[in-house]
């Protein structure tokens, strides 16, 4: 598998002096790059895609037809001043991987003894700067939607997911210089670029949005009920939500949803707990987030009664109907009187023959 070449350094010498001194805020921040190549029957060349993210915000993508890496977030244009060759260098780098992937798809088909069909090769790598100052990094490949091989930067080895991947493992582990570079990239270069990007995009990437917290409930079939803590509209993504009972963390019968993005770039999630309705008041949803000056504890509250409003509306409608009915009948009576007077006036003799109805 032809992926053993070194990745070109995407960092100019001395750039670390320009970067932030440490992690901004107490939240974690991450960066990841994703490459995907798809071969379909009847296609002369595989389709190729590349996109990169900081904290789930896309900032560049690749136009395979133009062979160019393009900005997708306004703040990344700030790199033009600091690094004029940024777009040209990265465009060439991604194009090289597009060529590599084209060869690799054929190699992998041979490893798996495949002929024809649709196949997908993916590469994803990135790094994380955690709130406590620690760092993380990863590099992994997948083939046809399944794990293929991943890099362990601590042991400087590759983990093969199956027998065919052992072929790649042997090739890559024989190149010690590249392995050392992979480790340096994930632990140093990637982190430095992440810090630079956080500085460029600090207005959006380092902002805080206060979470909205609401507790609802629903009855269960077994005389129990579920309290649901819904938390939404918050940024950054990192949030701590727990259920407490009498002020102590409660984990029994607790379920949670994924932290998912909203269309405006904020996030939402939920936590639920199954409780005895008689003990409902003892439970609270505890939320900690960078957007909150202090943690909040929210309990379920009885909704305001709408009975008075409903009664008032009904009375108002009835009064309106009464008034309209009175006006209607008065007009009918006036019409009857006018009609009677008109009939007498039209009979000039006063002795006309009665006309059957």
Automatic annotation (TrEMBL):
<dbReference type="GO" id="GO:0042612">
    <property type="term" value="C:MHC class I protein complex"/>
</dbReference>
<dbReference type="InterPro" id="IPR037055">
    <property type="entry name" value="MHC_I-like_Ag-recog_sf"/>
</dbReference>
<dbReference type="InterPro" id="IPR013783">
    <property type="entry name" value="Ig-like_fold"/>
</dbReference>
<dbReference type="InterPro" id="IPR011161">
    <property type="entry name" value="MHC_I-like_Ag-recog"/>
</dbReference>
<dbReference type="InterPro" id="IPR007110">
    <property type="entry name" value="Ig-like_dom"/>
</dbReference>
<keyword id="KW-0490">MHC I</keyword>
<dbReference type="Pfam" id="PF07654">
    <property type="entry name" value="C1-set"/>
</dbReference>
<keyword id="KW-1133">Transmembrane helix</keyword>
<dbReference type="InterPro" id="IPR011162">
    <property type="entry name" value="MHC_I/II-like_Ag-recog"/>
</dbReference>
<dbReference type="InterPro" id="IPR050208">
    <property type="entry name" value="MHC_class-I_related"/>
</dbReference>
<keyword id="KW-1015">Disulfide bond</keyword>
<comment type="similarity">
    <text>Belongs to the MHC class I family.</text>
</comment>
<keyword id="KW-0472">Membrane</keyword>
<dbReference type="GO" id="GO:0002474">
    <property type="term" value="P:antigen processing and presentation of peptide antigen via MHC class I"/>
</dbReference>
<dbReference type="InterPro" id="IPR003597">
    <property type="entry name" value="Ig_C1-set"/>
</dbReference>
<dbReference type="InterPro" id="IPR003006">
    <property type="entry name" value="Ig/MHC_CS"/>
</dbReference>
<dbReference type="InterPro" id="IPR001039">
    <property type="entry name" value="MHC_I_a_a1/a2"/>
</dbReference>
<keyword id="KW-0325">Glycoprotein</keyword>
<keyword id="KW-0391">Immunity</keyword>
<dbReference type="InterPro" id="IPR036179">
    <property type="entry name" value="Ig-like_dom_sf"/>
</dbReference>
<dbReference type="Pfam" id="PF00129">
    <property type="entry name" value="MHC_I"/>
</dbReference>
<protein>
    <recommendedName>
        <fullName>Ig-like domain-containing protein</fullName>
    </recommendedName>
</protein>
<feature type="signal peptide">
    <location>
        <begin position="1"/>
        <end position="25"/>
    </location>
</feature>
<keyword id="KW-0812">Transmembrane</keyword>
<feature type="transmembrane region" description="Helical">
    <location>
        <begin position="307"/>
        <end position="329"/>
    </location>
</feature>
<feature type="domain" description="Ig-like">
    <location>
        <begin position="211"/>
        <end position="299"/>
    </location>
</feature>
<keyword id="KW-0732">Signal</keyword>
